Amino acid sequence: MTEWIECTLDKLGEIVGGATPSTKCEDYYGGSIPWITPKDLSSFKGRYITSGERNITEKGLASCSAQMMPKDAVLFTSRAPIGYVAIASQSVCTNQGFKSIVVNEKADPLFVYYLLKYNKDAIEAMGSGTTFKEVSGKTMRAVKVRIPLDVSYQNRIAAVLDSLDTKIENNERINDNLEA
Fold it and tell me: Domain residues for 139?
């Protein structure tokens, strides 16, 4: 049995917010940089996301505080609504509705994905705001979680959950084909 520890999310990686280039400038949109918004995750069923509905240009990226998220960054919506989760299958950037985790060597990205899904309600309860709830970067960094200290144990847990999700997705595809 491996040792489990309690830590905060910032110990698992860097928490990074996103941004939106001005929509008034057409030169910022239609480029080759995948730009993910919470809307893109609203009907997304998988674990790994490649792109969203829109792309931005290099000029658009440079015009705002959005940052490129590397492959395997765990994307987490922090507002409107809180709690959609996906893993970047390639470099992407996000709008301001995200607090993503660029996972470090202490954690497995797939394990962090499932960890965030499991803790969604607790994180959502930490949100604040009057018009709609939002989780700040400071709050996200301070979220306490329990994880196996041994990353290989995280890998094994994530692999079991991933296998189950893959079977569920395959069954859903079969059911969708039967209904067609």
Answer: 7-146
Is 176 a member of any domain? no
List all residues 6 or more positions away from 109 whose beta carbon is below 8 Å from its beta carbon. 72, 73, 74, 87, 103
- Provide the number of structural domains found in the chain: 1
Per-residue pLDDT tens digits for 23-69: 999 999 999 999 999 999 999 989 999 999 999 999 999 999 999 99
Per the confidence metrics, is the pTM higher than 0.70? Answer: yes
Tell which residue, 99, 104, 138, 132, has the closest CA to residue 116.
99
